[in-house]
Design brief:
The complex is a heterodimer.
Chain A (H helix, E strand, L loop, with lengths): L28 H11 L3 E5 L2 H10 L22 E5 L7 H10 L5 E5 L1 H5 L20 E3 L6 H16 L23 H7 L24 H12 L1
Parallel strand pairs in A: 1-2, 2-3, 3-4
Helix pairs in contact in A: 1-5, 2-5, 6-7
Chain B lengths: L22 H10 L3 E6 L5 E5 L4 H10 L7 E8 L7 E9 L4 E9 L5 E3 L8 H12 L2 E3 L31 H9 L3 H4 L2 H6 L22 H8 L4 E5 L11 E7 L2 E8 L7 H5 L8 H4 L7 H16 L5 H29 L4 H21 L8 E2 L2 E2 L7 H23 L3 H7 L7 H6 L5 H5 L6 H4 L20 H25 L17 H4 L3 H12 L7 E9 L2 E9 L7 E5 L1 H6 L2 H5 L4 H10 L4 H5 L1
The chains are: A alpha/beta, B alpha+beta.
Chain lengths: ~230, ~625
């Protein structure tokens, strides 16, 4: 994508001869930095399952994310800006995910691609993390099982939008505490709350008998209690 | 330089009329009469022999070595827990490539003493299969060389997940599971053997190997001498582009040569088998295509066929041919992804773009039929989710006609490319006997010269009526595996054209109200249909009690479904024998002694998919 020069107040235009050399322009520092950041995002593909195949499709001939300056897949987290978590994440893989995220330098963003990464999806069982936001902070969630490549591209564009609104003056935005390295992203109470089972999907096995799980929560209860918790 | 493909065929032997008539059962009764507890034929007529736990090893040794039987391939080892403190069963599924015969040996282990002798000394394939049963059921295999967890973390302490008394969501709460996951130490992620190799075993008195003390005036030659015999332990994965997902390999290197390769699995262990015990028969279909997301419809079709064999339902002629069309389309889909990623791993990017273009065409066909691109869930027990939309067969024919060009183009880029030849010829060669011993199936086995294809050996869906060949390699190296898969795509195109020509008209679903929902128009109009609809929705499909181990030829090899039903609306056991899980077991054997870069080529040529390996 070429820079949107029309929004840049160009000094030295032939129509307005102020005597300043034509190779100069003035703009806001935030604008230039964000422009550079958002148009060459290097993704770190953390692909595990089906969603990774759609991520490959997004990079291949038909969808071609090179159009957005994102074709440079960075398989080393040290040279990456955006982690795309595509697929289910198991508890065995969780420390790897956190390590990769901790190894990425700021500024960095994260896309949670697909139902499994966002919420555990159809696997509410002993091995799947019920949403990667318990492990790492997430900027954009992409719904779908798996999302289409267009869905991923839309998420990438939303990250671009988000970058537009950032400011270098806000020093809290990109601050990281060394104490958070290797730690869960949410406190235990919040994890308990967001990982409740839906419906009766986890207690219907005749062979093993009824198992004890906590009361079934409706979505609205969760949201209210989560808001309470955050206050 | 050139490798020829000679075509061989193995025709399957007929299944026995009754269990008494079976050769293997008769021989077992003659030799092991005292320990043979029970025999029966399962839902598809495979003889099953139940033997006492103490004599499993003797019985299996006899079956493998007896000249009339020669069950040389151990296809599957699986556990079955019926719950309620009943004994845990272990199933050994056998196949004789010589005689074209199947047999299942079952033993019942009391929960108080879950011990049986390992058969790794007979079949290398048992290595990972037994480790899996140990991991998920806690069955101890005595004499196993490396009995530790394979899918769960090394020190997983919530128990054995597939036992009936293990809750679906695990024993600990979610916060505790997250906390434990993030506070794993190195004993959780490395085997003790690896820690010993690195000199980091915590309770040993060995000091870690001190760093080399290099004096400043040493010449480079002295430095090399000092490093003679030094070994390096390298961790490859789980986050590495060349491991096709989240496979992790711990490698001991001497320079660039791989001396030891220890695979670590389970980073994508999704608990499919456990979760499916909590789902109704038709609800399991969406789970099946998330295991092999590279060729999803093959899993859909295989699962439906397995359950239908338990039900005794005969699907309609149109459905049979339609399933062949979709199976072969997905075989091509899976092989295309393998071709593209294999080429990327060896440094050729163009092929990936070519093959993905063709994959997008197949995705369009998928979308036109079922609305999804790769999580298709097309089958239902007793039929399909719907009939084909108008114009679909013409579009499919158009795709088949166009594919030949792309295959030719890709082949022009690779088959005689000197870099490709240098990277693949004689790399990771495997002879047929070893391949059978490792339980390899699919193109990997056929590249080693064994013409075992389930479509020919035990035809299903009427595959015996189609005219196609089974390509077989001569050297079993990486290049042969490439040639065999390319030829398989061409054979699939042949089957596709034949199947599209003979696709009969008629209904796509069976007309059995106990199996298939009545059409919406009818269920609102007639009371009978409404009752059938109500019963099927409220009670679910009821599958008669029984057991079956059904297999089809998936794109990666023999895909088995070991299913036990107690007559209810959910399976008691739903085992998926993923072909790439067993195929990957040969990786260490193939790569040791080769360069690290050859390991990448061998791994790519095995065509693995982690969703199916880790399940």
């Amino acid at each position: 994508m070429s820079p949107d020069t029309r929004s840049l107040p160009i000094v030295g235009d032939s129509a307005l001869d102020t005597g300043v050399p034509r190779s100069w322009m003035t703009t806001r520092l935030d604008y230039v930095v964000n422009w550079a950041r958002r148009n060459s995002i290097w993704p770190m593909p953390f692909g595990t399952a089906c969603c990774a195949i759609e991520m490959m499709a997004a990079a291949a001939s038909k969808y071609d994310i090179a159009r957005f300056g994102m074709e440079r897949m960075s398989f080393s987290p040290r040279q990456a800006d955006l982690m795309i978590v595509a697929g289910r994440v198991t508890y065995k893989l969780a420390p790897v995910l956190r390590r990769v995220w901790d190894q990425m330098p700021q500024p960095k963003w994260c896309i949670s691609m697909g139902a499994c990464a966002s919420s555990g999806g159809m696997f509410d069982n002993y091995t799947i993390v019920q949403g990667i936001d318990q492990i790492v902070p997430v900027d954009v969630y992409v719904p779908g099982c798996p999302p289409r490549p267009e869905g991923l591209i839309y998420a990438l564009m939303m990250v671009q939008e988000k970058i537009k609104g950032e400011s270098l003056a806000n020093d809290r935005l990109r601050m990281e505490s060394p104490g958070s390295v290797g730690r869960p992203n949410l406190p235990p109470e919040a994890i308990e709350l967001v990982a409740q089972p839906f419906g009766n999907s986890t207690r219907q096995n005749r062979g093993s008998g009824i198992e004890a799980t906590s009361a079934v929560q409706q979505p609205r209860d969760r949201i209210e209690r989560l808001i309470e918790h955050r206050d | 330089m050139s490798t020829t493909l000679d075509i061989q065929l193995v025709e399957g032997a007929a299944r026995p009329e009754s269990v008494e008539a079976d050769v293997a059962i008769t021989a077992l009764r003659r030799t092991f009469g005292a320990v043979l507890n029970e025999t029966h034929l399962d839902a598809i007529g495979v003889p099953v022999a139940t033997v006492a736990p103490g004599s499993v090893h003797d019985v299996l040794t006899f079956l493998k070595t007896d000249a009339d039987l020669l069950f040389d391939m151990l296809v599957d080892v699986m556990g079955v827990d019926l719950g309620g403190g009943r004994p845990i069963q272990v199933w050994y599924q056998l196949w004789s490539t010589q005689h074209g015969r199947q047999l299942r040996v079952v033993t019942h282990l009391p929960v108080s003493d879950l011990t049986v002798r390992s058969v790794v000394d007979l079949w290398q394939a048992a290595n990972w299969l037994e480790r899996e049963s140990y991991d998920l059921y806690g069955i101890t295999f005595e004499g196993h060389p490396d009995l530790r967890r394979i899918l769960m973390p090394e020190n997983y302490d919530e128990g054995f997940p597939l036992r009936k008394d293990f809750p679906l969501r695990g024993r600990f709460g979610r916060p505790e599971q997250v906390r434990r996951a993030l506070s794993r130490d190195r004993e959780d992620v490395y085997a003790r053997e690896e820690l010993a190799l690195a000199g980091m075993l915590p309770d040993s008195d060995d000091e870690p190997v001190p760093a080399l003390d290099v004096p400043g005036d040493m010449s480079p030659e002295d430095l090399t001498d000092g490093l003679e015999g030094e070994r390096m332990l390298v961790n490859l994965g789980p986050q590495h582009p060349a491991t096709h997902g989240v496979l992790r390999l711990v490698l001991q290197l001497d320079g660039e040569t791989v001396e030891r390769c220890i695979p670590h699995l389970g980073y994508l262990h999704t608990g499919f088998e456990k979760t499916c015990e909590y789902r109704e028969w038709n609800q399991i279909v969406p789970y099946t295509d998330r295991m092999d997301y590279l060729a999803p419809m093959l899993y859909n079709v295989g699962y439906a066929l397995a359950v239908e064999s338990l039900l005794g339902v005969e699907i309609t002629p149109r459905c049979r041919v339609l399933r062949v069309v979709l199976s072969e389309l997905n075989r091509i889909l899976g092989h295309l992804l393998w071709l593209g990623t294999n080429a990327i791993d060896l440094g050729a990017f163009t092929v990936f773009l070519y093959t993905f273009q063709e994959r997008e065409r197949i995705y369009n066909l998928h979308e036109a039929y079922c609305g999804a691109r790769l999580t298709t869930s097309v089958t239902r027990i007793g039929g399909m989710l719907a009939d084909l939309p108008p114009g679909w067969t013409a579009a499919c024919r158009e795709f088949v006609d166009g594919l030949a060009t792309t295959l030719d183009e890709s082949e022009r880029l690779l088959t005689k490319n000197s870099i490709w030849l240098a990277r693949t010829l004689d790399v990771g060669a495997l002879d047929g006997e070893t391949a059978i011993n490792f339980g390899l199936t699919g193109p990997n086995l056929r590249a080693s010269g064994v013409a075992y294809d389930v479509r020919k050996a035990r035809p299903y869906l009427g595959y015996e009526e189609y005219d196609f060949d089974v390509p077989v390699g001569a050297h079993g190296d990486t290049y042969d595996r490439y040639l065999v898969r390319l030829e398989e795509m061409r054979q699939s195109m042949r089957i596709l054209s034949q199947a599209l020509d003979r696709l009969p008209d008629g209904p796509v679903n069976v007309e059995d109200p106990a199996v298939i929902l009545p059409p919406k128009s009818e269920s609102m109009a007639s009371i009978d249909s409404m009752i059938a609809h109500f019963k099927l929705v409220m009670e679910g499909l009821q599958v008669p009690a029984g057991d079956v181990w059904y297999s089809i030829e998936a794109s990666k090899g023999e895909l088995g479904f070991g299913i036990v039903s107690d007559g209810g609306s959910k399976p008691v056991r739903c085992r998926f024998r993923g072909p790439s899980f067993v195929n990957l077991g040969v990786l260490a054997h193939l790569s040791e002694g080769y360069l690290l870069s050859d390991l990448i080529a061998v791994n790519a040529s095995l065509d693995i998919v982690l969703g199916e390996i880790d399940r």
